[in-house]
Amino acid sequence: MKSAIVLGARQQFGFKICEELLEDDYLVFAKDFIQWQTNEQKENWLYIGRNAHLNYTDLEKAENIYEEKSSLVIIPLVDFYTREETKAHDLLISILKDQSFTPIQTPLVLIQPYSMQRSYSTFSQAIEKLKEERMKMGGEVLEYHLPMKSEGIYFRLNDHYEWIKNTDREEIATVIYHLGEKINIDSC
Fold it and tell me: What is the pLDDT of residues 73-97, one digit of tens each?
């Protein structure tokens, strides 16, 4: 069974990603930072929280999130940029810096807003540095860029410099469809 770790799982895009993964029969290891969850998010979680293929964990500190074997590690950075929660940003960076826990063959999937919609911050710089370090170590980084308004989705792989636009499907469904295709190709 295909599986994925989703960080920021109860946030807007993280939640949608979990829904799509579950619809596509993934085993989902959902994780979110306890300090930035709202009551509305907790209520929304009741819609999918009882799914047998969903395993949820609150993150309170920098800890090993890679204990579960998974096909993908998905981080919807769009949610992190939308909500400027410094403590959650710092915890995410701390978790990602400890790359010794990450199986290098597990693709790291970053779903970001367009660079024009990102603030040029310490958080943004740290993400870029971690992304570069992972690729230097031979790890795969898949990037998807979502607009804040619905204009289609762009994606890029390690070995491509150009961005590819896909407007055929809803944004999150497109990401999950593309990742599913990639996993099927890589496992052959």
Answer: 999 998 888 777 778 888 888 888 8
Spell out, as residue ranges, where the chain has pLDDT lower than 70.
61-64, 66, 99-104, 115-120, 147-172, 178, 181-188
- Homologous superfamily (CATH) of 3-186 is NAD(P)-binding Rossmann-like Domain (3.40.50.720)
Contact 154, 145 (CB under 8 A): yes
**Predicted local confidence at residue 162, as pLDDT:** 61
Helices and strands in the chain, H and E counts: 6, 8
Identity of residue 159: D
Q: Where are the alpha helices (DSSP H) in the chain?
A: 12-23, 39-45, 77-82, 86-97, 122-136, 171-186
Domain residue ranges of the chain, discontinuous segments joined by +: 3-186
For 121-149, b where at least 16 C-beta lie within 10 A, e where not — what string? eebbebbeebbeebeeeebbbbbbbbeee
H-run or E-run covering 28:
strand 27-33
Torsion sign across C-alpha atoms 30, 73, 104, 77: negative
Per-residue pLDDT tens digits for 168-182: 546 667 777 767 766
Which residue blocks in 35-162 are alpha helix, DSSP H? 39-45, 77-82, 86-97, 122-136
